[in-house]
Design goal:
Elements lengths: L2 H21 L11 E4 L2 E12 L4 E8 L4 E7 L2 E8 L4 E2 L2 H8 L5 E4 L2 E15 L2 E11 L5 E6 L5 E9 L4 E5 L2
Antiparallel strand pairs: 1-2, 1-12, 2-3, 2-8, 3-4, 4-5, 5-11, 6-7, 7-8, 8-9, 9-10, 10-11
């Protein structure tokens, strides 16, 4: 193979590499300040974090729109979108249930809809070179909606409602 043919092959490989990058999931390259178009809203990436479950890891992007706070996450190739909800709107009271029993209820209700326990476990939450332990309870409804409850300590509890997204539902990703 001559010099010209090697040079052509080099450029061809670089073009193929760029094509693969364009076809890859655009979320994998999201960073602070980037803009995401989702569900007809414009969201800005405020922070990036990682949940380390040991065997698996979940990357998370905190996003904010004009009037809402949300999260995009990716785990094992699946994309999820969550918005924050008030844990006090969940029945039974998840904080009291945790303090009384140390484990999740088998079923919860949020705004009249029932969700069944799908996962309960521990993770290390890593963000900005810091790490925090967190308990995570995941509940799922029959129609696929998810409620995540995160327990940071006996009294710091957050809850999020979301669903799995298809990649095509992300209308645009714009680097800053």
């Amino acid at each position: 193979m001559g010099f010209i043919e090697r040079l052509k092959n080099l450029f061809k490989r670089e073009e193929e590499k760029k094509d693969i990058e364009l076809l890859g999931n655009p979320l994998e390259r999201l960073k602070k300040g980037d803009i995401v178009e989702l569900e007809g809203e414009t969201w800005e990436v405020k922070d990036v974090a990682l949940y380390d479950y040991g065997a698996t890891k979940e990357k998370e992007w905190e996003i904010v729109s004009a009037n809402r706070r949300g999260f995009l996450s990716m785990e094992e190739g699946k994309i999820y979108f969550f918005t924050e909800i008030d844990p006090e709107d969940i029945h039974p009271d998840v904080g009291k249930h945790y303090r009384d029993f140390g484990k999740p209820p088998e079923e919860i209700t949020y705004k009249g809809k029932r969700y069944k326990l799908r996962y309960a476990g521990k993770a290390k939450y890593r963000k900005n070179l810091e790490s925090y332990p967190v308990l995570i309870w995941e509940f799922k409804s029959e129609d696929g909606e998810i409620i995540d409850v995160e327990i940071w300590d006996d009294y710091e509890i957050e809850a999020f409602k979301g669903r799995e997204l298809k990649e095509w539902e992300i209308e645009g990703v714009f680097p800053r």
